[in-house]
Amino acid sequence: MAIIDxxxxxxxxxxxxxxxxxxxxxxxxxQYPHYPGSGAAEETGSGQAVGTxxxxxxxxxxxxxxxxxxxxxxxxxxxxxxxxxxxxVSAGYDAHWADPLAGLMLTCTGHARLARTLIDLAAELCHGxxxxxxxxxxxxxxxxxxxxxxxxxxxxxxxxxxPLGSAQNTEPDLSAIIADLKTRHRL
Length: 187
Known about the structure:
This protein is α/β, with parallel strands linked by helices and 187 residues long. It is 37% helix and 14% strand.
C-alpha cells in the first residue's frame, strides 16, 4: 500500500503509524518548516522500512509548476518502484493559494492534476484501486472546487472548475530539493 499525502501540513500521525512498516510507502509533500514541524527529508523510515517514508519539504511559494515537477520526478518514480496494491490519498486542499493557513500556491487546476496523476498511477500499478480521504482546506471555495475536481477525475471526466484562478506568483527553484531527494531515495 502507498499513502500519498498532499496536505499543506506534514502528516506526522500517519508517518508515525507506518514509520517502521516496510509494507507501506508513505509520501508527504508539505510546506516546511510549518506546523507541526516534522517532515524533514532526513525522516525516511526505520529498521527494515528505511526508505519507505518519503518526505518532500517545500518552501512557501511553491505552486502548480513546482508540485507537478515534484510528482513527475520524485513521487511517480518512487510509487512505481514500490508497486503498491492500493493507493490511499490524504487530499488536503489547504495548499491552495487562497487558503489562509499557509503559503503554498496551488490552484484548483494544480490539485486536479495531482488527482489525475495519482489515479493514473493506480490504474497502472494496482488495477485502479485508489481511495481519496479529505484532509485540510479552509477556504471553502477552493475546498469545494478541489474536491469536485477530484471526484470528476475519479469518474474519468476531463472537465474541471477553477474559478479562483492563479495567485500570479514566481515560484522558488526546487532543483536543489529535487536533487537531494533523488540522491537520498536513489531515484
